[in-house]
C-alpha cells in the first residue's frame, strides 16, 4: 500500500469523523439559535450517531457486491453536501434531518475505509495499519471539535460547516486516484454470518466493551459544554473547543497501545486497564472546576483509546473471511453505545441533576471494565 493511498484514506477518515462531532462544542449556541432545550440540542449529535449504530451492518453485507473504493468516494461526496447545507436549515427539525443523512453516509464511509485497509494491508502490518487508522480517527474527533469551536468563536457557527463541506468534497475527488481494492480475500457475506461471527470466542464481549466505554466517552463529551456553563468561567465556543485538547493524548495512546498490550500480557488486560482509567475520568469530570473538566478529557481519552486501539486489530486478525461484517458489527456496537451516551446522561441530568448523570457514566465504565476482565478467560484467535 503506497504512501499516497494511506494519505488519502486517512484524510478522508479525519474529515468523515470531524463531520460527526463538529456540532458538539456548539450545542449551547444551537440551543439558543433554534430556541430549544439543552437535551433537545444534544440530539444534534445523537441524530448522527443513531444511524451509525444500525447502517454499518447493511453496508457490511453488500461490501462484497460493491467495491469499497467507489463507496468511499460517493459517501464523501454526499456527506460534503449535507454538511455544507447545515447552516442553511430554517429550523432545528430540518437540522436534525440533515444530521440523520450524515449518519447514513458516515458508516458507509467508515466501513468501506476499514475494509479497504484490512484487505490492502499485508498480514504482517495489518495490526499496525489498523492501529494507525484508529489514531487517525482520534485526530478526526479532536479536529472536528477543536476547529468547530475555534472557527465558531471567531467567525460564527456556520463557518465550520461550510469549511468542512468543502474539504470533504476535495477528499472525494482525491479518492478517484485510489487503486481498486482486492475482493478475493472475502467469502460472500450472508445475513446468517452475523450470529456465526458473534458466537466466536470473545467477539460479543469485545463488542460490548467498546460499546460501554464509548457510552461513557460520548456522554462526558456531550455534557461538557453544558457543564462549563454551570462552572466559574462560563461557556464560550472557543473554551469548549479547547477542552477537547485531551484528544491528543488519545493519539499517543493509540500509537503505543500494542507495545503496552505486549507488556501487560494481552489485549484483554489492556482493555480492562482502559476501563479502569475511564472510571477515573468520570469521577474527575464530576468535580466542580473547569480545570478538573479539562484534565478529565485527557484521562478519558487515554482510557478509551487504550481499549479502542487494540480491539479492531484483534478482531480482524481472528476473522480472516468476513472482514466487512466484522468491521460493520464493530462500528454498529461502537456507535450504538455512543448514541445512547449522547442522550441518556443528558436526560438524567435534566431530571435528576449532574450527580446522577455522573453516576450513570461511572456505572457504565465499571461494566465495561468487568466485561474486559472476563476476556482474560477467552483465547482470541490471532491474539499475539
Q: Could you describe the 3D structure shown?
A:
- 78% of the residues lie in helices and 0% in strands.
- The two termini are 23 Å apart.
- The chain has a single domain (3-377), classed as Up-down Bundle (Growth Hormone, Chain: A).
- By secondary structure, the protein is an all-alpha fold.
- Residues 184-188 have low confidence and may be disordered.
- The longest helix is centred in the middle third of the chain and has 30 residues, at 126-155.
- It contains 18 helices and no strands.
- The chain has helices at residues 3-21, 27-34, 38-41, 43-52, 55-62, 68-85, 92-120, 126-155, 159-174, 193-198, 203-230, 237-243, 247-264, 267-285, 290-308, 311-318, 323-352, 354-374.
Key structural traits:
Growth Hormone, Chain: A; 384 residues; mainly alpha
Structural class by SSE content: mainly alpha
Instruction: Give the C-alpha Rg.
Output: 19 Å
- SSE pattern, N- to C-terminal: HHHHHHHHHHHHHHHHHH
Q: What would you give as the CATH superfamily?
A: MFS general substrate transporter like domains
Question: What would the CATH topology be?
Answer: Growth Hormone, Chain: A
Summarize the structure.
The protein is 78% helix and 0% strand. The chain has 384 residues and is mainly alpha-helical.
How are the SSEs ordered, and which strands pair?
Layout: H1 3-21, H2 27-34, H3 38-41, H4 43-52, H5 55-62, H6 68-85, H7 92-120, H8 126-155, H9 159-174, H10 193-198, H11 203-230, H12 237-243, H13 247-264, H14 267-285, H15 290-308, H16 311-318, H17 323-352, H18 354-374
Amino acid at each position: 500500500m503506497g504512501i499516497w493511498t494511506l494519505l488519502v484514506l486517512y484524510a478522508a477518515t479525519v474529515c468523515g469523523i470531524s463531520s460527526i462531532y463538529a456540532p458538539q462544542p456548539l450545542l449551547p449556541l444551537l440551543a439558543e439559535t433554534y430556541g430549544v432545550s439543552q437535551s433537545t440540542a444534544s440530539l444534534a449529535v445523537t441524530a448522527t450517531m443513531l444511524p451509525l449504530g444500525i447502517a454499518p451492518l447493511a453496508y457490511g453485507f453488500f461490501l462484497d457486491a460493491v467495491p469499497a473504493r467507489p463507496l468511499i468516494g460517493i459517501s464523501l461526496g454526499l456527506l460534503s453536501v449535507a454538511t455544507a447545507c447545515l447552516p442553511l436549515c430554517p429550523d432545528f427539525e430540518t437540522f436534525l434531518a440533515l444530521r440523520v443523512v450524515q449518519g447514513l453516509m458516515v458508516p458507509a464511509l467508515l466501513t468501506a475505509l476499514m475494509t479497504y485497509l484490512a484487505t490492502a494491508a499485508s498480514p504482517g502490518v495489518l495490526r499496525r495499519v489498523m492501529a494507525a487508522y484508529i489514531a487517525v480517527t482520534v485526530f478526526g474527533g479532536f479536529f472536528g471539535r477543536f476547529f468547530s469551536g475555534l472557527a465558531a468563536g471567531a467567525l460564527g457557527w456556520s463557518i465550520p460547516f461550510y469549511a468542512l463541506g468543502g474539504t470533504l468534497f476535495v477528499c472525494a475527488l482525491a479518492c478517484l486516484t485510489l487503486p481498486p481494492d482486492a475482493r478475493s480475500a472475502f467469502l460472500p457475506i450472508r445475513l446468517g454470518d452475523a450470529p456465526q461471527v458473534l458466537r466466536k470466542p470473545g467477539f460479543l464481549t469485545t463488542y460490548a466493551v467498546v460499546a460501554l466505554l464509548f457510552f461513557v466517552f460520548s456522554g462526558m463529551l456531550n455534557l461538557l459544554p453544558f457543564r462549563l456553563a454551570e462552572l466559574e468561567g462560563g461557556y464560550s465556543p472557543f473554551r469548549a473547543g479547547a477542552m477537547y485538547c485531551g484528544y491528543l493524548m488519545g493519539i499517543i495512546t493509540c500509537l503505543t497501545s500494542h507495545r503496552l498490550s505486549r507488556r501487560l500480557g494481552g489485549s484483554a488486560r489492556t482493555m480492562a486497564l482502559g476501563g479502569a482509567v475511564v472510571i477515573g475520568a468520570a469521577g474527575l469530570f464530576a468535580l466542580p472546576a473547569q480545570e478538573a473538566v479539562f484534565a478529565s478529557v485527557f484521562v478519558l481519552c487515554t482510557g478509551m483509546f487504550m481499549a479502542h486501539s487494540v480491539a479492531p486489530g484483534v478482531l480482524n486478525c481472528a476473522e480472516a473471511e468476513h472482514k466487512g461484517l466484522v468491521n460493520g458489527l464493530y462500528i454498529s456496537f461502537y456507535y450504538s453505545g455512543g448514541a445512547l451516551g449522547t442522550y441518556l446522561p443528558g436526560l438524567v441530568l435534566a431530571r435528576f441533576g449532574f450527580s446522577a448523570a455522573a453516576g450513570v457514566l461511572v456505572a457504565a465504565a465499571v461494566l465495561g471494565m468487568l466485561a474486559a476482565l472476563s476476556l482474560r478467560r477467552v483465547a482470541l484467535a490471532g491474539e499475539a
